[in-house]
From TrEMBL:
Belongs to the universal stress protein A family. It comes from the Bacteria. This is Universal stress protein. Residues 3-152 form the UspA domain. It comes from Rippkaea orientalis (strain PCC 8801 / RF-1) (Cyanothece sp. (strain PCC 8801)).
């Protein structure tokens, strides 16, 4: 079955590079379009101790968090745009998006709304308690996506 719309879930890591390269190869083979995607995860545990601060301290904290988030968004936009340019240089149509929140759910939802027929993402190989506490994006996507999923295993696993 040829794939026409491939959603590529990326991060800025060596594994993310491998995921991109695999998705690019599949896009070339199938004449598919790529949707390059990244989710910025906000750690709720970081925010919890600050909820009881006075309003002016909370405002300062909120401003600092927003400033940090803006920097992260700019960094993500830059490397997603670079990946899109690499794909387009090889005659592959590529667009990109980034969201803030839980990666598994965003990947599932974007795959549905964009009508992806394949999701390509990486797996770091968390097991046992680490996977239980940190969660597994790839596991969530495999079990909740309405299309095929290709999981690229971390090379050290």
């Amino acid at each position: 079955m040829p794939y026409k719309k491939i959603l590529v879930a990326l991060d800025d890591s060596p594994l993310g590079q491998q995921v991109f390269e695999q998705a690019l190869a599949l896009a070339k083979q199938n004449g598919a379009n790529l949707m390059l995607f990244h989710t910025i995860l906000i750690d709720n545990q970081t925010l919890t101790p600050y909820i009881s601060l006075y309003n002016e301290q909370l405002a300062e904290f909120s401003y600092a968090m927003r400033e940090q988030l803006d920097k992260e968004i700019e960094k993500v936009r830059h490397w997603l745009d670079n990946y899109a340019k690499i794909a387009e240089a090889q005659q592959i149509t590529a667009e990109w998006d980034c969201k803030i929140g839980e990666p598994g759910r965003w990947i599932r939802d974007l795959a549905n709304s964009w009508n992806a027929d394949l999701i390509v993402l990486g797996r770091r190989g968390l097991k046992g308690i680490s996977e239980m506490f940190l969660g597994s994006v790839s596991n969530y996507v495999v079990h909740h996506a309405n299309c095929s999923v290709l999981v690229i295993q971390h090379p050290e696993q």
